[in-house]
Amino acid sequence: LAEDRPVAPHPAQRYATETRRLFDAIAVLRNSLAERATLTRKLKHQAETDGLTGLMNRRALDMIGESHTSSRVMADGACLILMDLDHFKSINDRYGHLEGDRVLQETVRLVRPMLGPNDIFARFGGEEFVMLIPGRDLGEANALAARIRGALETNEIVLSGGVLLTITAS
């Protein structure tokens, strides 16, 4: 229990009263530790995930950059794409923040399938996104960035009331 490893419960046997109380207390402790582990996982997820888009947030990205593991994973090289949605403030000003949120969510929905399983996609802040692409060279990353920009420019986002909006990114 102290090492947070699962412990198989003992079958019910006829124990002396003191021993039975001890096993009952251990069962309570086991349940409390399991609940604590679940809550810890949930808090970690909330702390590292952008609530609007479901992507990693900047904090999680910083932790990846600081980790020793990422140094080994990125040893073969990696490219970073920083994407900023153009004129996003004017979208919020003209259509409202809820519609701006819809634009961010639709951007993620469009871009995520274009990335590989080992690529990291995070919301850096506001309308800025980061894609960390391990194992690719600069030419491949440039081609991916161009495909993403092209997909955004040709995709129409339907806002409330049927307004169609096309966005661009830098």
Would you kindly provide a written description of the structure presented here, covering whatever features stand out?
The chain has helices at 17-48, 58-66, 68-73, 88-95, 97-111, 138-154, and strands at 78-84, 120-125, 128-134, 156-158, 164-166. It is an alpha+beta fold. The strands form two sheets. A three-stranded antiparallel beta sheet has the order 1-3-2, sandwiched between helices. Strands 4-5 form a two-stranded antiparallel ribbon. Strand 4 (156-158) and strand 5 (164-166) form a beta hairpin. The relative contact order is 0.13.
Order of helices and strands: HHHEHHEEHEE
The backbone outline, from C-alpha atoms, is elongated
The count of strands amounts to 5
Largest sheet: 3 strands, antiparallel
State which percent range the strand residues make up. Answer: 15-25%
- For this structure, the quaternary state is single chain
Distance between the termini: 52 Å
Strand order of the largest sheet: 1-3-2
Poorly predicted runs are none
Work out the radius of gyration.
Answer: 24 Å
Number of helices: 6
In short:
The protein has 170 residues and is of the alpha+beta class. The chain is built from six helices and five strands; from the N terminus they run αααβααββαββ.
Please supply descriptive tags for the structure shown above:
170 residues, alpha+beta, 3-stranded antiparallel β-sheet, two-stranded antiparallel sheet, 15% strand
Strands, helices and their partners?
Elements: H1 17-48, H2 58-66, H3 68-73, E1 78-84, H4 88-95, H5 97-111, E2 120-125, E3 128-134, H6 138-154, E4 156-158, E5 164-166
Antiparallel strand pairs: 1-3, 2-3, 4-5
Helix pairs in contact: 4-5
